[in-house]
From TrEMBL:
Residues 1-26 form the signal peptide. It comes from the Bacteria. The lineage of its organism: Bacteria, Bacillati, Bacillota, Bacilli, Bacillales. This is Aldouronate transport system substrate-binding protein. It holds the Pfam family SBP_bac_1. The keyword Membrane applies.
Length: 503
């Protein structure tokens, strides 16, 4: 997920937050009263700061919020902030020292990392085992969301095993091919889709794989070959970058081969990622390696062009390589929910807040915050729901999903499923057993903060040049030497120091 460009104003706010936070927190700890209190009848009061991606906030008297308060016995004060200015507001709030009880954090920004390290938020790791839902947090995702190996927030879960292979099912059937399961079978399908007239129009106007300048699909396919997900351990337990492994070079040789044989579009290195679906939908390309849920979007786009074009799209897991079935995960989360120490001062209050967050993961609460109320935001139809189109009714629930964590899984109500949508869910669930974690994910590198884009560009440019035949293996190793000299060696050294301290 890309971050917006940072202006001078935002830089100043980040610096302000970083410089003032320790002082302000120390000052306010003795003066500020706890935000977490008891309302009439013993109801807990909680203030929550969260982003709004909609034009309007839900009204204070929203029936959905009233139902939330009734079910949880918590008096909820929602502080909505427009998503476009959320980071600015977050940094201003940090600098003030007067933090709400609960805050949504959109990412591991420098200001959040500094705030966590200097004691602004509770470290939750030791407490999570005591809560039925929170105790089921996924180990890989928890590690990915951590800072210095510590859990400062409850992650907002997203599909961890999200990647997959979208494929033209009708082309497979036309050519009498089975769905590919191994890298060799995958290559044979790409070759047949390019050379054997899969659409039956008598022309050689198709090709196998469509790719763009987005690097994700190449990263994912490298993992099929056994390359690490960004960082891997060597025989001594030290971390090495993926491009320093022989498996990485095996993957590059394969990419070079399919490019030289015309099995992937020649313009991938300059194609905008937004154009990626076009060749697939238009019947030029037969395979996409990307997020599995692309399959349902491709299916929908094809049906919009031709409502009779059913059953043309399928989605598959990763291809089996030398080390078995392996898939590159997403980070598995989109931001997290943190608990401030200035708002929630005591361990007793912390446990109340954690009980509230744990309850939000119950199916009834997930459905409430994600779908709304039956008869207002949706009607039931068998096992599925039909959402309302009434904008006024939808306003009462829009944005409340920002405090959903989906732990241990998404239990919101479902709209009626198409066969492709069902298959996507099956693939993503099965992928959780084969994803390869990045052991360097929780490590916060100062070198990377300064030189990361430059270092990444050196390797990404060399990879493209190797695939299209502009450099050979020696040329790629020359680029790796440049990477090392440009800060890579320093980066590897720092990452391993952090990794050793974490272990």
């Amino acid at each position: 997920m890309g971050q917006p460009k940072t202006g001078l104003k935002k830089m100043a706010l980040v610096l302000c937050a970083s410089m003032l936070l320790s002082t302000v927190l120390a000052a306010c700890s003795g003066e500020q009263q706890s935000n977490t209190g008891e309302a009439a009848g013993g109801t807990t009061q909680l203030t929550i700061m969260l982003p709004n991606f909609e034009a309007e906030n839900p009204p204070e008297n929203s029936p959905v919020v009233q139902k939330l308060e009734e079910l949880t016995k918590v008096d909820v004060n929602l502080q909505w902030v427009p998503s476009s200015s959320y980071e600015d507001k977050f940094n201003i709030t940090l600098a003030s020292g007067k933090l709400p009880d609960i805050m949504v954090v959109l990412g591991k920004s420098p200001s959040f990392i500094n705030a966590a390290r200097t004691g602004a938020f509770w470290e939750l790791g030791p407490y999570l085992k005591d809560y039925p839902n929170l105790s089921q947090m996924n180990e890989i995702i928890t590690n990915n969301a951590s800072i210095d190996g510590k859990t400062y927030g409850i992650y907002r879960a997203r599909a961890l095993g999200r990647n997959g292979v979208t494929i033209r099912k009708d082309w497979l059937e036309n050519l009498g091919l089975q769905e590919p399961k191994t890298i060799d079978e995958f290559y044979n399908v790409l070759k047949a889709f390019t050379n054997d007239d899969p659409d039956g129009n008598g022309k050689q106007d198709t090709y196998g794989l469509v790719a763009s300048k987005f690097t994700g699909p190449w990263d994912n396919m490298q993992v099929w070959f056994g390359a690490p997900n960004k960082w891997g351990e060597d025989s001594s337990g030290a971390l090495v970058p993926a491009h320093d492994t022989p498996e990485y070079m095996e993957a590059l040789q394969f990419f070079r081969k399919i490019y030289s044989e015309g099995l992937v579009n020649k313009d991938f290195a300059v194609m905008d990622a937004t154009k990626l679906p076009d060749p697939f939908v238009n019947g030029q390309a037969g395979v996409m390696v990307d997020v599995a849920d692309n399959a349902q979007r491709m299916d929908q786009k094809i049906l919009e062009k031709d409502p009779t074009a059913t059953g043309r799209v399928d989605v598959l897991q990763a291809m089996e390589g030398p080390k078995g079935l392996r898939d590159m995960p997403t980070s598995g989360y989109s931001g997290m929910i943190v608990i401030s120490k200035s708002g929630v001062k005591t361990e007793e209050d912390l446990k109340k807040v954690l009980s509230f967050l744990d309850q939000l993961n119950e199916p009834e609460l997930q459905a409430l915050l994600g779908n709304g109320l039956e008869g207002q935001q949706y009607e039931k139809k068998g096992d599925y729901i039909i959402p309302t189109t009434d904008k006024l009714a939808l306003r009462d629930v829009q944005g409340l999903n920002q405090i959903l964590m989906f732990i241990p899984e998404d239990k919101t109500l479902r709209i009626e499923q198409t066969p492709v949508r069902q298959k996507v869910a099956e693939v993503q669930k099965a992928n959780e057993e084969i994803v390869i974690a990045n052991p360097g994910e929780p490590l916060i590198s100062d070198v990377y903060a300064q030189k990361g884009p430059q270092l990444d560009n050196i390797i990404n440019d060399a990879r493209i040049k190797f695939i299209v035949g502009q450099i050979d293996e020696k040329g790629f190793q020359d680029a790796v030497a440049l990477w090392r000299k440009s800060g890579g060696d320093e980066y590897v050294k720092e990452v391993n120091e952090l990794y050793a301290a974490l272990k």
